[in-house]
Amino acid sequence: MKIFNTLTRKKEEFVPLEEGKVRMYVCGPTVYNLIHIGNARPMIIFDTVRRYMEYKGYQVNYVSNFTDVDDKIIKKAIEEGVSADEISRRYIAECKKDMEGMNVKPATTHPQATQEIDGMIKMIQTLIDKDYAYVAEDGTVYFRVKKDKGYGKLSHKNLDDLQSGFRSLQVSGEEQKEDPLDFVLWKPKKEGEPFWTSPWCDGRPGWHIECSVMAKKYLGEEIDIHAGGEDLIFPHHENEIAQSECCNGKPFARYWMHNAFLNIDNRKMSKSLGNFRTVREISKQYDLQVLRFFMLNAHYRSPLNFSADLMEASKNALERITDAAANLKDRKNSAQLKQATAQEKELIGKSQEFVRKFEEAMDDDFNTADALAAIFELVKFSNSSVTQESSEEFASALLDTLVKLCDVLGLKAEKQDEILDKDIEELIKERQEARKAKNFARADEIRDELLAKGIILKDTREGVKWKRA
Ligand code: AMP
Ligand code: ZN
User: pTM of the full predicted structure?
Assistant: First the structure.
């Protein structure tokens, strides 16, 4: 499996630190609003990377943080007259709902910055002790960039260029820095802001230190993959490398992966430009599987322009997959013949060619667009080779392959069985009759069957009431 590594700017063979295991960290969102579909791009892409690694047999420890202390969260809290904590709690819950809708698996751990302050203070202290950081008069702690000889290696920037850029950008209040390149590890509190006590001043951490600390705590000092959107390469990831490597004395992450932007009218979608569409808005118009398909139909390192036309095309393409799966399921359920014939066995063997193509595409730096093309070849093959005369084994084998490959991409080939109101009423009636006949086992079975379909029953004095979960 080859991964394009931003650090070396090359596709490299993936070799994990520990055989059979992957330690992966993905920078998560700052939670002060509903996430937009630009934020959804890394979520979908790196969830797919994780799923493919799992498909290949790796055990993946996947960590993705929520940044829950930040100027934007504090600003929103002040606007609403509530605590910053309330804002971040609300939008973490909303973000998790969107992730579920997009079929993004929950991370192994979703740490939150505010829960990891002790670790941050410890890492900052180590950096001070090692002379990589210093405390200014007002208690701000800065990282001493020039002392880190490797600085700039991820973003491929050289210190002199950076320096001339920074000199003209220097803002007031930063005169206390030894060097314009130095960045904040800890800053003093401002009136009305959340703060924590530290050896230097009451205050809060800088943004970069949180990821270095959480990656170390949940994955270890050295990790396999560190990922995020390409806007994070500089300064966020460059600074993470500086902090982690200077503190731990070891290389931090082996492979750095970055997704390109989701654009709208060829400009980056972002909250600050106001040109964003939230995942929630999209979910009113489309099943979020369509959004997932739209994202995966492009290579993750290519910019992707959002458009209504592409969403419609994605919807139609996805339907070709779900229709093929539904057709295979029908054939499987209504087949007269159980066992595959010799000729069908040969065709099952042939269908493995699409699996091979799928894997080949995914092994080449997660080329999901080509992987989808392999799935469409399988769809075409299924549509033309499975008929009313086909055996159950044949239809079933093709269906399993289709469902399995789609699942690696987080796409659900089989539509959830929607249960209709009239079927629910029928089952409730049957349950009442079973109860009358003291057949409680059957009554419970019906209740469980409905529950599995998301229907909750409530026995009231006026009879049985039900609702969809
Ligand atoms: P933020 O909440 O801005 O820190 O962003 C969370 C994640 O979304 C980061 O990995 C960003 O790089 C990524 N991101 C933000 N906007 C976009 C966009 N328009 N396209 C792709 N990724 C984005
Ligand atoms: Zn980060």
Answer: 0.89
